[in-house]
Specification:
124 residues; mainly beta; 7-stranded mixed sheet; 4-stranded antiparallel sheet; globular
Length: 124
Amino acid sequence: QVQLVESGGGVVQAGDSLRLSCAVFGLTDNKYRIDWFRQAPGKERDFVAGVDWSGAYAYYGEFTKGRFTVSRDSAKNLVALQMNSLEPEDTAVYYCAATSDDGYVKPISQYDYWGQGTQVTVSS
């Protein structure tokens, strides 16, 4: 059974940092990509950042503006999202999701597995 478990969310002030983790269980084929998405109340789920199966290539949403860094530890089946200089606009539920790695960020409907999400709240 495949399971993705996010952790690390919380309540912080503007300018602070958070590190989210996504633990991946049960994926026997390691050629999958792990991407982070976020969804704020009343808004669509947006791509945040992602990393390919090798961990060598990372992709970022434009709004991250160099503030976020995604990394992958394949030995530990962990994908981390380091978020610095957080802004109130970053408040959302953050999800990690997995799909087969075809070299690009896919439409949300094509992701096979999702975590339950972790809440990030940034106060001004």
